[in-house]
Predict the structure of DUF465 domain-containing protein.
Amino acid sequence: MSNTPHTLQEEFPFDLEKIHQLKVSNAHFAKLLTSYDEVNDKVHRAETRLDLLTEAEEEALRRQRSQVKDEIARMLRG
C-alpha cells in the first residue's frame, strides 16, 4: 500500500498541455478530472489513516480511481 498521492500531473507528465486543452474544451473531460481528484483524495486519506475504511472500501476506491484514470487516458489518446 502506497500513501503517495497519484496526481494527474504525476500520472501523465507528458500530457499536461493536452489535459488543459481538453479541460477547457470538453465538459465531460473536465468532470472526469474533478472526479479523479475527489476519489484520489479519498484514497490518500484512507491510506494515511485520516479516514478509517475497511480494506474492501479502500480497494473499491482504488478501483474507482483506476477506472476514472483509464477513461482519462483513453480520451488523451483519442
